[in-house]
Amino acid sequence: MIVATKYINYDGIYICHPNIMAASDSDFQNIQVRRIIDKGTRLARQKALPFLQGEAEAEEGGIGSLIAALDTGIGAMKKDNECVDYNIAIALDQDISDGWVRGDVSIQPFSYMDNIALNIGLVKQA
User: Fold this and answer.
1) pLDDT tens figures, 107-116
2) How far is CA 113 from CA 7, 58, 86, 116, in A?
């Protein structure tokens, strides 16, 4: 269950237990990571759509330009500190006789502290 919590002397809301319904082995078990992949997907789609029906040559306007456009979009996420790193892997020399350009975009999210456990106690003066 996701819980919005307010704390004394803390402006804003802290989201507790930001888990979402995902399989136990899923990369998308919490909101922070889900937001990163959602934004990456949206940016990749925005950058790739203008290339549909375009020539797939490696020159200007083709696969090379598609890679550069994706790099600009996903690269903005790294520049804005929204991800640790990313990789775009699309072969320039792939056979596209079936009309498909295939590749991978990988985004490395930041790690988050989900829980903090502190033992706080008093000590006797000597």
Assistant:
1) 998 877 777 8
2) 18, 43, 21, 7
Residue-by-residue DSSP string for 8-64: TT--S-EEE--B-S--TT-S--BHHHHHHHHHHHHHHHHHHGGGTTS---SSTTSHH
In angstroms, the CA 40 to CA 51 distance is 18
Q: DSSP readout, 113-124? A: ------------
Task: Return d(Cα 26, Cα 38) in angstroms, integer.
Answer: 15
Q: What is the mean pLDDT of the chain?
A: 84
Angle in degrees, 0-180, between the axes of helices 31-48 and 63-79, rounded to the nearest 10: 150
